[in-house]
Amino acid sequence: MQQDERTAKLIQNDWSTAPIPAEYRRSDYGVVATLVGQIIALSGIYVGASMSGQLTIMEALLATVIGSAVLALIGGLLSWIGTKTGVGLSMLLRESFGCIGSYIIAVLLVLVCIGFFGIQCGFFGATIHAMFPNAGIITDTTVAGIWGGILMVTTAYVGYKGVEWLSNFASPIILIMCLVAVVLAIRKVGGLTAFNALPVESTGLTVTSAAVTVIGGYAMGTCLQPDFSRYGRSPVVATGGSVFGFLIANVFMTMCGYCVCVACNTADVPTALIQILGFAALVLLVFAQWTTNGGNLYFGTVALSTIFPKGNKHIMTLVVGAVAVIAGAMGLMDYFTTFLSILAVGISPVAGVVIADYFFVKKGKYQYGEGTKHYFCNLLALIAWVAGSVVGFVITWGVAAINSIVVAFVVYLVLSIIFRSNPEKACVGGVYVEDEFGAIYKEGTVKAQE
Question: Buried (b) or exposed (e) across 169-207, using 16+ Cβ within 10 A?
């Protein structure tokens, strides 16, 4: 097959199964805006709202900064790896987990990301209806869930460029509106001193437990940073974008939820936003949900493309997007929330394995592309992943996702040291080779070039 035809196919599938060449990398601003756009989510506002009335503003800020710093550390490391290698999470796993391991995690990513995309479509419809209950059929819960879902599918359909296009202008708007909302909320109460002096209830919520909530709100999302950072030209810039997204943008979103709910003396986020921002709250709501949930569908279809590398990513996006939108808008996805949350716990420890393998075991020597060889299965990675997942399920102290990441990191590092003299002993199933599309075949049966 001619090189230009191969490149066209890889571009069509958003370079899901091959390292992105330097000439196809995106601008620094675009990559940073995209990373930030994925991080600024409505969930952050709701996390902040959950602290209202229980912590002072300085305590809430401290908890948010601590939690966001932990997220920034993990997300920053994975963003660096994504930019250096030029591949997303599912492809990264071929080096650390081996081929079968990468497929197992890719299936989990598809189910979780697309499942939560559908749930968020339903949540979007419910929130729009709560904000504008008397605006007619356009704000009916089901109808709003459908038109909101269609908006989110459009950017995922276009691919990275679509997500970047939206984030380029939506990310600054969201951040500015959050800052404005915080300022207006504080002024409504009578100034920062008066705000900080407001009485709080003794509910048992502490700065530490609130920080745990902040971390839990986006722990799995840190694992998906490489899917966007792979388009970066500079690992420093991409890592900085991820760190900025958590330390600045996530703090803004969380404190926005806290401040507006405290100022309006309500835990009802839509009501509080309307009181503080008026109809401009709709802009914040739509953009915050659009940038994040569009990313959910994008992540899911990128993972799906690594399972079916010769399929058409656009068609896959439309098909799974349509099913998820309809199911989510009708509330059907809500029945799977617990199931998806359980699966999500299994994704987090992947970050621990990748960070340990890339920085400490292989010291940055990851390779992808036509002719690259991978082991079928790395037992050490699977053992570490299972150990991390079990801890995430069983241990109730702290944050399940962070516990699982740390355990997977330590277990993989220890096992790698034990097998350092002969790492091949931990790999089973033979060697597989990537073809021109990133599909893998057992060595000796690789298809001839067309």
Answer: ebbeebbebbeebbeebbebbeeeeebeeeebeeeebeb
Beta strands in 295-362 (DSSP E): none
**325, two tokens:** 């939108």
Q: What angle do CA 59, 64, 67 make, to 5 degrees?
A: 125
Q: Considering the entire predicted model, what is its pTM?
A: 0.93
Residue 155 to residue 365: CA distance in whole angstroms? 33
Measured at the CA of 24, the angle between CA 18 and CA 11, to 5 degrees, comes to: 55
**What's the average model confidence in pLDDT over 80-89?**
97
The H or E element that residue 223 is part of is helix 219-223
The SS3 assignment for 450 reads coil
What residues does 441 pair with on adjacent strands?
433
- Residue ranges of E strands in 65-142: none
In this predicted structure, the answer to whether residue 216 has a pLDDT above a threshold of 90 is no
- DSSP for 146-214, please give it: HHHHHHHHHHHHH-HHHHHHHHHHHHHHHHHHHHHHHHHHHHHHTSHHHHHTS----SS--HHHHHHHH
Give the CA-trace dihedral at 144, 147, 149, 154, to 10 degrees. -160
Reading the block at residue 61, the tokens are 């800020």
Tell me how far apart the alpha carbons of residues 145 and 125 are, in angstroms, rounded to a whole number: 4
